[in-house]
Design goal:
Distance between the termini of chain A: 39 Å
Number of helices of chain B: 23
Largest interface: A-B, 29 and 42 residues
Distance between the termini of chain B: 58 Å
Structural class of chain B: alpha/beta
Radius of gyration of chain A: 17 Å
Shape of chain B: globular
Largest sheet of chain B: 7 strands, mixed
Strand content of chain B: 15-25%
Strand order of the largest sheet of chain A: 1-8
Number of strands of chain B: 27
Oligomer: heterodimer
Strand order of the largest sheet of chain B: 5-4-17-16-15-6-7
Structural class of chain A: alpha+beta
Largest sheet of chain A: 2 strands, antiparallel
């Protein structure tokens, strides 16, 4: 796990795909590969209303990344200063070991270059003190750029609020 | 941002009708990224359609230079033209037409909105009263309903989501058919604890967030409102003080509403009478901080007008005008102590001729602001009320947005001149005589606009990068045409800087005042009118007229009895259409990033009804109606009314040069035969379309 975390507030997320498009335009991606995706799951009937979950899937920037271990050339790397997992494309030979290794489908295939590329949390923006494009552009501020510690605190607050919502007091 | 080749430009998006304020990052004269303007959006939030326009700016499938038709209309044969050639061609034809038939034989149509001053000036200067916009298939009914009851246009009020406690959204799919700021404000309100009711003929993402969700037969949302009004009136749950101060026609409303009990409404809508009672009481408890969304796209049923009136009646009863959490009247320059922004449209002399579409003489209760574009083909074909020989279509595609494009096209084919001004190819562009490529909004500066609201401001759409192709900005195209036609004096400028200086002169501002934030603030905080004495209802009585004098004077009843919408003929379904967050009006379908997310539409069907027809999820089905048939994949769901099928609007485009969208999916409007009609609200009744569905 890197020093960072993207927290997704399900109550605020509207499944509009703005995160995906901000990511694609920021990184000038070709059609096909996507560094992050919103996967709608549902509708599922909860309390008489068909609800839906929008599952946000960027790269999770693992503490022990499967992709880095699998990479035979050292192209897939973990940045020492903050744990961001990224590809040095000059070293990538397109063997796809990382694609095989990653349980979440984060490394993406670039058919134009024959190499892998992936979410690097917009590290150029991070280095300027900014948040990644997906978080910055999110239509409803459902995505937040936080630390892992912040995220668990937010999750607890969110859960407590949901619990309170379902009871009358 | 220290690099000299990098800059930030504040501007206004032009992708959909919301027109959000944006911040464009530019590097070496290329768009690097498009964000929301943080000074106005509370952050750099921007919807997917807006940010994806970086790809449209770079797209090779845009119109790249002026084009003159070089074969039959619609043959797809074009010759590349210089601007001089194209403008001379248009101006020479317009001169002939004006000299032979009069200025009124020229019609101009656009997408409406705040950036239309130059379009309206041009057509007025030609001596024609004939301006209209897309709203006959959008918000005509709600616009005219508010005009008839409050004497105010639909968009003269703003929703105060920040303080709203309770909302009802009638098929207003606010988080899919979205504007960035409104969607964010709405989600903020939900987080704050606002409750909302959602009704629609189908499930949507908005439904998924609702506190109560009802799947209603299309057209019966009006019955639900009648039930609510019945309870609120009979149990005296209304805001007595507001009603006494501002409402005219309470007695007539009471008599009218008598039979429309919650029990009656239950039979009509399927919503239990006790639920209707509960909602009425919840509305009354939350009043006046309630929003009953008047709707965006309201061109559905023949009596949509009366449904929209029922919404404004509820606003009146609940006293939800000019109060925190309700509707706030928009304020303008003069409310902030400034002289008005100068408008070019005030320069040419008034045109006394009657309009082509009947507004002002045949349809006296309908507003000329939006007009009745659906009458254009009839006016052309029948030369009624006079010959119409030229149509200038400005960044708008009636063959995509209006029903029955074949009938519309039949009229257009009889014109002496058809001109399309656009960024992209469109269905109407494809049959035009000339296509004039306007520079995309990222490549041009437009005149300054007043952004009305509780806290009005001046906004500017600023050029961020040089035009990629041989395109020109609006101010230049119109000025060039005007000069060729001898009406250049109404456009007193030679550059956009001179144009804006002229606009701002009386207000005392200058162009550089926009540099810092992309807008000019006119008041430090929001302005509220006195609710007791000073609400700007602009009807003859200066009241909110439940009994509308405008209707009564024209022999149209304010309270006709409710008519239950007819069920579809045996074996048919009612076709309804809608939108998603990544596309608008078909004009974004060819954008590579947005196309990638949703490149085709499907036909949503009720699972049980589909099973009866042996149709399974993702089966190819044939949809047919009036001799038109198209194939599309079925998407089965239990959360759609059994009488209804639904599809995304705008697909099935038929322009070969737009390769990503060419013939992808089903084109909804070609099923809507015979619906180029004028209903009481001026809207086309586009949901009066019934289709047959079978497995292929």
């Amino acid at each position: 796990m890197s020093n960072y975390y993207i927290y997704q507030d399900q109550k605020r997320c509207i499944g509009c795909n703005a995160c995906e498009v901000h990511c694609k335009t920021k990184n000038d991606l070709p059609v096909g590969p996507a560094f992050c995706m919103i996967i709608p799951v549902g509708p599922k009937l909860i309390g008489g209303i068909p609800r839906i979950n929008f599952v946000f899937m960027p790269c999770f920037h693992c503490e022990t990344p499967w992709c880095v271990s699998a990479c035979p050339t050292g192209a897939m790397q973990k940045r020492v200063k903050d744990g961001i997992v990224f590809v040095d494309s000059s070293l990538c030979v397109g063997c796809k070991s990382c694609i095989t290794a990653c349980p979440w489908g984060a490394p993406q295939w670039n058919a134009e270059t024959g190499k892998v590329f992936k979410c690097d949390y917009c590290k150029d923006r991070i280095d300027e003190g900014l948040a990644p494009a997906c978080v910055t552009g999110c239509t409803t501020a459902a995505l937040r750029w936080v630390s892992p510690a912040d995220s668990t605190r937010m999750r607890r607050k969110f859960f407590a609020r949901t619990l309170a919502d379902s009871k009358s007091f | 941002m220290s690099d000299s080749t990098t800059k930030t430009v504040f501007s206004v998006c032009a992708t959909c009708s919301v027109r959000c304020p944006i911040e464009v990052e530019v590097e070496n004269d290329a768009v690097k990224h498009i964000w929301g303007n943080p000074h106005l959006m509370g952050g750099r939030h921007l919807c997917p359609r807006g940010t994806a326009q970086k790809a449209t700016q770079m797209d090779t499938e845009r119109v790249q230079h002026p084009m003159i038709r070089d074969g039959d209309r619609g043959s797809g044969k074009w010759k590349k033209a210089s601007w001089d050639e194209a403008l001379d061609y248009v101006a020479d034809k317009l001169k002939d037409i004006r000299d032979t038939y009069g200025g009124e034989s020229v019609v101009l149509g656009d997408r409406g909105g705040p950036f239309t001053d130059l379009h309206k000036t041009f057509i007025k200067a030609l001596g024609s009263p004939n301006y209209f916009n897309q709203h006959a298939t959008c918000s005509n009914s709600v616009h005219n309903a508010h005009n008839g009851m409050a004497g105010q246009r639909r968009n003269t009020v703003t929703y105060d989501w920040k303080n709203c406690n309770y909302a009802v959204l009638y098929s207003r799919n606010i988080i899919e058919s979205l504007g960035t700021k409104e969607a964010k404000d709405f989600v903020d309100a939900l987080e704050r604890g606002m409750k909302f009711i959602y009704t629609d003929a189908r499930w949507t993402y908005t439904a998924a967030k609702a506190d109560r969700f009802f799947i209603l037969r299309p057209g019966t949302e009006y019955a639900l409102n009648l039930g609510l009004i019945n309870v609120i009136v009979k149990e005296k749950l209304y805001d007595t003080e507001f009603v006494n101060d501002w409402v005219l026609g309470m007695k007539e409303l009471m008599a009218f509403i008598e039979p429309y009990t919650p029990e009656w409404a239950e039979k009509e809508t399927g919503v239990l009478a006790k639920e209707i009672n509960t909602i009425a009481h919840e509305l009354a408890d939350a009043k006046p901080s309630v929003i009953l969304h008047q709707g965006w796209m309201t061109a559905r049923s023949p009596d949509d007008y009366y449904f929209r009136r029922s919404i404004y009646i509820l606003y009146g009863l609940l006293g939800a005008y000019e109060t925190p959490g309700g509707l706030l009247f928009n304020k303008n320059e003069t409310h902030c102590g400034y002289k008005p922004l100068r408008k070019f449209v005030n320069l040419p002399p008034k045109v006394e001729k009657k309009r082509f579409d009947g507004i002002g003489w045949k349809y006296k209760h309908l507003s000329p602001d939006y007009g009745l574009g659906q009458m254009l083909p009839y006016a052309i074909l029948n030369e009624d009320p006079y010959p119409v020989k030229a149509f200038i279509c400005y960044r708008f595609d009636p063959l995509s947005s209006y029903p029955d494009p074949e009938a519309f096209k039949e009229g257009l084919m009889k014109l002496d001149l058809l001109v399309s001004v656009d960024i992209n190819f469109s269905h109407i562009g494809w049959i035009s005589d000339v296509i004039l490529p306007e520079s995309m909004y990222l490549e041009r500066t437009d005149p300054v606009i007043v952004k009305g609201g509780p806290k009005p401001a001046l906004w500017i759409r600023n050029q961020a990068v040089e035009p990629r192709y041989d395109s020109k900005p609006k101010w230049w195209i119109i000025k060039q045409l005007a000069e060729r036609l001898g009406i250049g004096q109404y456009f007193p400028y030679n550059s956009i800087e001179e144009l804006i200086a002229w606009q701002l002169e009386d207000m005392g501002f200058k162009l550089s005042d926009f540099d810092e934030k992309g807008y000019v603030e006119l008041t430090p905080k929001q302005i509220l009118f006195d609710r007791k004495t000073n609400l700007p209802f602009n009807t003859p009585s200066k009241k909110l007229e439940f009994v509308s004098s405008m209707l009564e004077e024209n022999g149209i009843p304010s309270f006709p009895h409710y008519k239950s919408p007819a069920p579809p003929p045996e074996g048919n379904f009612r076709l309804i259409t809608g939108k998603i967050a990544v596309h608008t009006q078909g004009t974004t379908l060819n954008n590579k990033y947005l196309n990638e997310i949703q490149s085709e539409n499907r036909l949503w069907m009720n699972k049980d009804e589909a099973n009866k027809l042996d149709i399974e999820n993702n089966d190819l089905v044939e949809v047919s109606c009036n001799g038109v048939s198209q194939n599309v994949r079925a998407a089965l769901t239990e959360y759609i009314h059994p009488e209804v099928v639904y599809t995304l609007h705008g697909y099935g485009r038929e322009i070969p040069l737009q390769t990503r969208t060419y013939k992808k999916g089903m084109r909804d409007n070609i099923f809507m035969k015979g619906l180029l009609e004028v209903t009481v609200g001026g809207n086309c009744p586009i949901a009066e379309c019934f289709v047959h569905v079978k497995k292929v």
